[in-house]
Amino acid sequence: MKLNNFMLGMLMMGFFVATLFFWRFWKRTRDRFFALFALAFGILCVNQVPLLMLGEASEYRGWLYVIRLTAFLVILVAIVDKNRH
Amino acid sequence: MATLVYLLCSLTSMACAYLLLRGYRRSGVALLLWSGLCFMGLGLNNVLFLIDVRYPEIPLLTWRKVPAVIGVSLLLYGLVGDSK
Q1: ipTM for this model
Q2: Separation between Cα atoms, residue B75 and residue A17, nearest integer Å
Q3: Chain A contacts of B19, Cβ < 8 Å?
């Protein structure tokens, strides 16, 4: 359980740092691609909070994975949008 | 319904990985490689979650997070390297 929470914390921090990097890239370039990546990783970061707060059983709740699915869809939109322009 | 969401997560994360790695192969932009590897890790995490749900007797709760941690670590390595 402790190792599980530790890894959730690592993931949350990793997603948070990635969000910051992509946000910085967006500020520098004003490229929508980076803004969408920053948004997606921000969603993934926030998604870890209920997993940490609600405990092990929450990991099997579908609604939490809808939030994660949203992040992946944002990434897909970013890639398709970039390829079109 | 929940299984459908988990399956969609797996498919979309694998699709993200494929598109990013394809973009890297075409353009050679390193950030696409690291992002692609990250989403491969997240995709594998989602697939292991599906296995965990299907076969709860196999203890995967913690171990299924390992590919995600590796993927995110690779992404951060690439982001730090690119920012220099």
Answers
A1: 0.87
A2: 10
A3: 76, 79
Query: Which among B44, B4, B38, B45 has a CA at the least distance from the CA of B19?
Result: B38
CB within 8 Å of chain B, chain A residues 8-37 = 8, 10-11, 14-15, 17-18, 21, 24, 37
Residue range B23-43, pLDDT digits in tens: 999 999 999 999 999 999 999
Which stretches of A30-61 are DSSP H helices? Answer: 32-54
Count the helices and strands in chain A (H runs, E runs). Answer: 3, 0
Tally of CB atoms within 10 A around A29: 11
What is the rounded CA–CA span in Å between residue B60 and residue A76? 28
Can you give the pLDDT at residue B1? 73
Strands of chain B (E only): list them: none
- Pairwise CB contact (< 8 Å): A72 & B9: yes
Q: Which amino acid belongs to residue A14?
A: G
